[in-house]
Amino acid sequence: MNSKIDFINGKTYKSLMKMFMPLFAAMTLTMIYSMVDSLWVGNLLGEHGMSALTAGTAIVSCWLNQSLLSWELLSRSLPMLPCT
Hints:
This protein is mainly alpha-helical and about 80 residues long. Helix content is about 80%, strand content about 0%. It has one helix at about 10-75. The protein is flat, with a radius of gyration of 20 Å.
């Protein structure tokens, strides 16, 4: 797939739609997953399970964001090794 998004010379609406649709789909799937997860845990484990899910989601999200950021910064600082 070799399509380039050009906001300056191309059509702005078309460029925005090319960027918006994958983001919208990902956010919709994430929201559906969270709703199903909340219903499942809430019905199965009750209040304590739901509070643990809520706190755990925030902790895992923060940890994942930090680890991805540190991996990105680390990969920029290391020289690329040739694959043999």
